[in-house]
Design a protein that fits this description.
Elements lengths: L1 H19 L12 H18 L11 H4 L15 H17 L5 H22 L6 H28 L8 H12 L15
Length: about 190
């Protein structure tokens, strides 16, 4: 389930966020978006050392995340699933620390907060959720999906090619709600294409 999230969903969420945050010069005070993106990556490297992130991908460049006329923002390049999850925590930390946020950034923060809660319950839980863990997993997962959808709708209405909804989002909703059912013997694997 988490691989669907890390590679299918987070690549679009993180790419969009890494595109949005350097727009604001008050966050990374450099004259161009490219230099602000470089400053954000340097901040990520420092944060990664403090938080003991294992391998870190190559520097982020504008062409790695920039939305194009035919595609949406997405974190492309050599970014593995585990690192996508670390980037979620990094962006959440950046958004949380901002003294002033735009309405889009407030929505991004709420969406990242739900995703962090979702991930934390997965990290703490054993192979089978307790009833309390299942409730937290489902509530945080639903909040994330609703928040991400609101981001996608906002961006569509404003003409931004950000926060693309992909089939993995639909798969994630199935994972969230099927997880509360007993698996059928021999058919307990959830797969996606």
């Amino acid at each position: 389930g988490l691989h669907v999230l890390d590679m299918g969903v987070s690549a679009h969420q993180n790419g969009s966020s890494i595109w949005v945050l350097p727009q604001d010069r008050t966050i990374y005070n450099r004259p161009t978006r490219s230099l602000r993106l470089q400053a954000m990556y340097e901040h990520y490297l420092e944060w990664g050392k403090e938080n003991k992130v294992g391998s870190i991908s190559d520097p982020w460049k504008v062409e790695m995340v920039k939305p194009k006329s035919h595609s949406f923002a997405c974190l492309r390049g050599n970014v593995k699933a585990g690192e996508q999850r670390w980037i979620v925590y990094f962006v959440f930390a950046v958004l949380s620390a901002l003294p002033h946020r735009t309405p889009l950034m407030d929505l991004m923060l709420a969406t990242y907060a739900a995703l962090v809660d979702f991930d934390m319950v997965c990290r703490r839980a054993g192979r089978v959720f307790t009833p309390a863990e299942l409730t937290q997993f489902q509530e945080a997962g639903e909040l994330f999906c609703v928040g991400y959808n609101a981001l996608a709708v906002h961006c569509q209405q404003t003409g931004l090619r950000l926060f693309k909804v992909v089939p993995k989002h639909h798969m994630l909703t199935h994972i969230i709600w099927i997880s509360g059912r007993r698996p059928i013997p021999g058919r307990s694997t959830i797969t996606s294409t």
